[in-house]
Amino acid sequence: MKRIRIFIAILFPIIIIGVAYLYLKPLNIAVLNPKGEIALREKNLLLFASFLSLFVLVPVYALLITFAIKYNEKNTKAKYSPNFDRSRTIEALCWGIPAILIILLSIVTWQSSHELDPYKPITSNNPTLNVEVVAMDWKWLFIYPDYQIASVNNLTIPINTPVNLKITSDAPMNQIWIPQLAGQVMTMPGMITQLNLIGNTKGSYLGRSTNISGSGFAGMTFKTNVVSDQDFNSMIAMSRSSNKILNIASYQQLSKPSENVPISYYSYASADVFSYIYNKYMSSSNVNISSSMGN
Amino acid sequence: MIYFAGILGLLNVSAFKHDIIQNVGVAVMGLSAIFAILIITYMKKWKWLFTEWLTSLDPKKIGLMYIFVAVLMLLKAGTDAGMMRLQQSISVGNNQGFLSSSHYQQIFSAHGTTMIFFAAMGLMFGLINIGVPLLIGARDVAFPFLNSVSFWLFVAGMILLNTSLAVGEFSGAGWLAYPPLSELQFSPSVGVDYWIWSLQIAGIGSLLSGINFIVTILKNRAKGMNLMKMPMFVWSVFGSMTLVVLAFPILTVTITLLYLDRFLGMHFFTAGGGGNPMMYVNLIWAWGHPEVYILILPAFGIFSEIVATFSKKRLFGYTSMVWAIWAIVLLSFTVWLHHFFTMGSGSDVNGFFGIMTMVIAIPTGVKIFNWIFTMYRGRINFSSPMIYFMGFILLFSIGGVAGVLLAVPPVDFQLNNSLFLVAHFHSMIVSGVLFGYFAGITYWFPKIFGFTLKDIIGKYAAYFWIIGFIFAFVPLYILGIMGATRRMNHYSNDLGFQPLFIVAGLGVGIIGLGLFMQVLQIFVSIIKRKQLQDKTGDPWNGRTLEWSIKSPAPEYNYAILPEVKYRDQFWEDKQIRYKMTKKQFKNFNVPKNSYLGLVIAFLAFCVGFAAIWHILLLFIFGIVGILIAIIYRSLDENTLKMITFDDLTQEDKLRLKGSN
């Protein structure tokens, strides 16, 4: 009977892990399936830190289970020392081993938070593409100042080209996340944050907001397309053929709250829209609520 | 801006209109309340309830009432969790699920707020009230009336939060209500005000409790119990209450400023007009991170008592443990920024807070190793508290490792606000905090009621909790890595999230079975209380003072105050067949009942309700009433009653005779 129970206790987790593995295998595990250098380095860091953690996790599990079996009160043969309550060696190890691991990990942390600073420009032979990003209720506006075009809920970038996102918000705080290209950055009204990323594999990757911002939050997703230079140029051409233009007047129309907004393009984006958006929260004259609501 | 409008403020008929699901919720709560009232009336128990419980200043009874309320809130917020997982299991692609996005957002906000402030905090203060005076050999807390006020403020906050279900609506801005979303501009309804005032009232109660227990621990210890002889639970409460006193004022001020923004149109945290929402995020986490340690430290303390007791062995590395607690207390104020590495603070700042966060893992790791070495060469009895302990180490370690990963800023960039994060903090708060409190309730139950809980049902409950936890949260770790963010009420079909959400929902169901088992355990134990009776007062072969008195413990705990020479005084007494030295019984005082705690909390509820709905007269009534109640109590000099030899329990009398 006891053997059967042990057998089941071992078999059951194996079956579950097997089923989970088979289910997950064909799926896109975004963070572990990076398509750009930044996300790749973040993934490697995640795996390295997980590996280091095993040096604490394994001893904890091993000791806990060994002691639990060996010193079960049913096992009367085991040694019993009710007054054993200190040991220099053991205590030194208890403080020492975690301390050493944390020192190691701290060095990695300090270096990586500098190397993978989202504000740090990416060095590359290709010139950097600038994109201005606005989180709105409840959609994303991407303005390409170099090309004077804009799009809603669609970010198209050329392959192997560093991209600098300048991000603000005309809504409550949001947080932009394209897990296969780079980690998250907050978007805040009246503030500009930055995110540098690069796409090294062609494809279409999901981006979303990860910070609750109101009723349309779950639908605040966008497509990030990493395309060849040629396709990027044709995207620009297509955008320029759109019949919509983005200026402050049309922006005020767009900024009205809307949910699950389809992709759209603007043939022309006025250069002052982005500064208009963040300045409207900065100006000191704007103290009454109605005028800071963006309508 | 409407400061005060008419006799009823903003309150009108539309506040009572809800959709069908909310109406069901209101009906269930209303009917259970009516049912409870009818039962009490039918059994003619109102007077008993009032004199024995509601007005009692006995910390054991206050503790039990805390736990009762907290368990109700655990069930309520657990139902919220079930609704969230159900929504996420079906709301895929074209199916929008059964909850609107605004209702869903209210549910997760209420879930987090209720679980932290009214379930976890309630269980914690309940166990502290029961445990601390007994463990330090005291008859009472330092300020018994203040203790009652704290408890009733907690209840007032709880009722206010639940009122939002029936009158108006609750906040949809998450459990920490980040502005500008929580500002009037984006959340014009009363929801956020409900959030502010239920936290404000309960938070002041917590602060008062913090002061009360620090003074209790410093002033009321038994003779001979110097600080380094205190049981580890007392040390952990000391650390936790220090954090309460240092951290809760930050919460009080922060949400007051948010309320001033909303009520008077100020601009502390607004998006425009010079407001600074990032300041709020910093302030709320300067409270919020210590809050996590406020909850976990007493759970650590409970595990320290339990592991030593059930291994029949001294706690390993007592001094290390004490230093670890104070290291955690100190460090918990230096890590708040790790909740928002993504704000763009720069790599030096992020690097510093990342490292500080990792450093806090060292004392936590030390504690885990010390518990494990307490088991070494012990004689371990695997009763249900030990099962919770095993589950705690197994699951908490994984959560801790996930926490260390999240402390590396670039890793956090990927996992912040994802379901990985949700799984991490539930690992800490469910398997750390809740398991600790469940173990503590099982452990001290006989001391309060005089009979033990049926252990076998408790074991099943623990197993259901552990297995349910694995099913409910391992999928969330995976979902987070797959790119699923928290607080989504809907997602598209091609992401492959759905099966994992369904498994997570099943996990919630298994946890529900665990909860059912716990309730069943209490009922079965009450029915079989004769068989389960704790005749000796020492059912676990205990080590600390509380097991030296009879079960259930009398109102005054100790007829004669104990003296302490050793850390595990009672254990040592048992080893040497310690004989009672001759002691003379002296009459002593215990506090009389007082209904004023109840009154003050009712008035505080009025203040909160008035502030939410902008009702001027009610607001003034509440404030003035509280002042009058405090003055009235301060002038009352007749607050004590004397316990004489004749009042003692039979057992205490016998023991006194034996010693004379």
Overview of this structure, please?
The complex is a heterodimer of chains A (295) and B (660). In chain A, 39% of the residues lie in helices and 23% in strands. In chain A, strands 8-5-1-2-3-12 form a six-stranded mixed beta sheet. Chain A has a five-stranded mixed beta sheet with strand order 4-10-9-6-7. The N and C termini of chain A lie far apart (73 Å). Chain A has helices spanning 2-24, 37-70, 88-115, 229-240, 248-254, 273-282, and strands at residues 129-136, 139-144, 149-152, 154-158, 162-169, 174-178, 182-187, 193-198, 203-209, 221-227, 245-246, 264-266, 268-269. In chain A, helix 2 packs antiparallel against helix 3. The model of chain A is unreliable at 285-295 (pLDDT under 50). The longest helix of chain A has 34 residues, at 37-70. Chain A contains six helices and 13 strands. With 660 residues, chain B is mostly helical. Chain B has one domain (13-659): Up-down Bundle (Cytochrome C Oxidase, Chain A), CATH 1.20.210.10. Helices cover 66% and strands 1% of the residues of chain B. In chain B, helix 8 packs across helix 14. The interface between A and B is large, with 104 and 99 residues.
Outline:
Chain A is an alpha+beta fold and 295 residues long. Helices cover 39% and strands 23% of the residues of chain A. Chain A folds into two domains: 26-115; 129-293, Cupredoxins -  blue copper proteins (Immunoglobulin-like).
